[in-house]
Design a protein that fits this description.
nine-stranded parallel β-sheet, binds guanine, binds zinc ion
């Protein structure tokens, strides 16, 4: 069904079933205050947005007689998932085993990314990537392209065709990478500016200025990235930060004048409200404070961190009062090993355990929905089911596999149900995905 996109259902469409959204941040308020759950809800969609959310019994009488009602039994409706950091050009090498970050980049990522000089290869990969997102209930992502502008054209064109809210940008690299993957200060600036002109704020798309990470950009290129951010209202800044100890030592050599890794970005105008830093594993308390002060966000990528052996993200540090940093959840494919946000939540739970932090299932779902939206400065637009949000919805199957169905009998609370979904779930648990009020994916029975 993913391949054949159904036509827009005209007028009002309402989804009926158990539904969950957030009324607050479960890192900040008790779970009971953070959650809004109804076992028989109606999510009313009109013109791509959510028009109403509440108990079906209360809302049904107000529906126009011609409204279409789609009923989901033994399911849970949740906001479409948000993947806050992913490299779609690395889909061809997902799961390529060998080495820690810097070796892996050299032997796999930098080899794979060279194929994106070919627009046809980029287009085919972008289509495959976005179809897989829909199969996983992912409706928004912040995506890295390669150095080739065509890689970004490809993913934006494919997202536009699917009506998805996506953020993407061309990687800037002018050193420490293969010649076929480097640009220059001027070329990187010009190509990014042209992409912003073509795609930023077109439909639901937004551009992210994307210096890959400090080691692959000269100070001059980072300054040019800062100029791009300053000159274009509403663009994002995405990059990597403090993922591994080797990388941090290298940054120290390359930028001897900087206070620390974060300061390299800060001094080039790259630390701001719409800055999203991937990883943030090895950060000092001072750096956390500066991230908080700037209103910037961290994209936590647990399957990647485990796959590459990068270290354990510390929720306790990130969320420490009185300076809780906004954190989103992300796959970081192809360092990450799945595009499933359910599997990513499970991995986040396990990583948190290693650091002595008890991540609750409710917090995990928040990170991939409302929390991800806050981190991407999209609160009120995506990540929720209340009126005004884009009608991006994942329908989760409470009997996705025999084991899920079996285990669900023993769940006595919503929190337990969420735990089972994230620990045992993957694409098989996504029965349907709605994007801006359209059915964009429906799982075929096995
Ligand atoms: N740091 C710089 N580039 C990358 C990348 O492609 N993946 C990961 N995980 N870390 C990076
Ligand atoms: Zn990454």
């Amino acid at each position: 069904m993913t391949a054949a996109r159904p036509a827009l259902v005209d007028g009002v469409t309402a989804l009926r079933g158990a539904a969950m959204t957030f009324a607050g941040d479960p890192f900040a308020v008790p779970a009971a205050e953070a959650l809004a759950f109804d076992p028989d809800a109606l999510v009313v969609m009109r013109d791509g947005r959510i028009a109403a959310f509440g108990p079906a019994a209360a809302l049904l009488p107000s529906l126009p007689p011609a409204a279409t009602i789609v009923r989901y039994a033994n399911a849970l409706l949740v906001p479409g998932f948000i993947d806050a950091h992913v490299h779609y050009p690395q889909l061809p090498i997902i799961g390529a085993c060998g080495g820690t970050l810097l070796d892996w980049l050299e032997h796999y990522a930098f080899v794979a990314e060279q194929r994106f000089a070919d627009p046809a290869f980029a287009a085919a990969t972008a289509e495959a990537y976005l179809d897989e997102c829909l199969r996983q209930g992912v409706t928004t992502a912040a995506v890295y392209g390669t150095v080739h502008p065509g890689s970004v054209d490809a993913v934006f064109a494919a997202a536009l065709a699917r009506g998805m809210r996506m953020i993407a940008g061309k990687s800037l690299m002018d050193r420490n990478a293969p010649a076929a993957l480097t640009d220059t200060v001027q070329r990187g600036y010009d190509e990014s500016k042209a992409l912003i002109g073509r795609w930023h704020r077109r439909g639901r798309l937004a551009y992210a200025v994307t210096p890959r990470f400090a080691p692959t950009s000269s100070p001059e290129q980072l300054a040019a990235a800062g100029a791009l951010v300053r000159e274009h209202d509403g663009v994002y800044l995405q990059t990597h930060l403090a993922e591994t100890s080797d990388e941090i030592a290298w940054v120290k050599q390359l930028f001897p004048g900087a206070q620390d890794y974060l300061d390299v970005y800060a001094r080039h105008g790259l630390l701001g409200r719409r800055s999203v830093f991937g990883h943030g594993i090895h950060l000092s308390d001072g750096a956390w404070q500066r991230i908080f002060d700037a209103g910037a966000a961290i994209a936590h990528c647990p399957t990647s961190n485990n796959f590459l052996g990068s270290g354990h993200f510390r929720f306790g540090d990130a969320k420490r009062a009185p300076r809780p940093v906004r954190v989103a959840l992300a796959t970081d494919v192809g360092g990450g090993t799945t595009l499933s946000m359910l599997a990513t939540m499970a991995e986040a739970y396990k990583v948190a355990r290693h650091t002595g932090f008890g991540l609750t299932p409710i917090q995990a779902f928040w990170l991939a929905t409302g929390g991800g939206a806050e981190a991407l400065d999209l609160a009120g637009k995506v990540g929720g089911l209340t009126p005004g949000h884009d009608a991006d919805i994942a329908v989760l199957d409470l009997a996705a596999t025999p084991l899920v169905a079996y285990r669900m009998q023993f769940c006595e609370s919503l929190s337990e149900t969420l735990a089972v979904l994230m620990m045992l779930g993957d694409d098989r648990a996504v029965r349907a995905t709605w994007v801006a009020g359209r059915l964009a994916h429906e799982r075929r029975p096995a």
